[in-house]
Amino acid sequence: MKKFNLLSFAVIGMLALCVFGCQKKEAATTADTKQDEISATVKSQISSLGFSTENARKVEGGYLVEGDILLSEANLTEKAETKHLSVASTEQYRTTNLVKALPRVITISVTNLPTVYSNAVNAMITRYNNLGLRFTFQRAAAGTTGQINVIGFNEGPSGGFITLGSSGFPTASGNAYSEVKMNTNAAAYGANPNLLYLTSVLQHEIGHCIGFRHTDYSNRAYSCGASGAGNEGQSNVGAILIPGTPSAPDAASFMLACSNGGDRTFNANDIKAINYLYK
């Protein structure tokens, strides 16, 4: 997820990236990374999945797109079903792959991060588990790595945004994406990160891990500002619209592309969409 830096980095505590709704994540993340590193073929594959290639870049494990979504090499070549869903009254999107073999317990671990990040993971787990879904999250046993591991990275702002966190989508076999990265740079969360803000960013990134796209897929301008405007295009592969949903903005969704710098949790439409998929 990304956070838009309205003060051009003058305020260090401003976040600017992450999958969007509770966090801000949608512009370039590093100044020294060239988009030229991605071939025309890869850009075409990214576009065909319904993702923007703007500021896309090669990273460890694949390609980072839309500020906080990691696409693996396998994601680029996967063929998908074209199933459509009907939920909610504002736009909601999911990816082709969802978590399968339900009901199940998904374990989560935290590796080499300050205590406040671990506490935020616990709070995020509580928020999801309170929904009564067909999966539950649980902290992995001490000293073990969970099915989702939360780790840190340190990266400063670039282009008016900063990456708050990143994650990927479920595997074709039906497992949740296995890693969430959280930015430990002071420009992301400040010297003393706010627990609820961290919780909302983690909630957003975990949303990706279980198969949710950004709610403002068709137009990120209303969460990211003018620089985020633009429809990324239609795709039955990477973004399956939950039909019957008008194009009216849902400015409170936890899956908006850019963060508002505060605690953004599930709204009524988010819960309807999650319940449709996993209740």
From TrEMBL:
Top-level taxon of the source organism: Bacteria
Keywords per UniProt: Signal
Annotated SUPFAM superfamilies: Metalloproteases ('zincins'), catalytic domain
Signal peptide limits: 1-21
Molecular function via GO: metallopeptidase activity
Keyword Signal: yes
Pfam families named in the record: Peptidase_M57 (PF12388)
Annotated protein name in UniProt: Dual-action HEIGH metallo-peptidase
Organism: Pedobacter cryoconitis
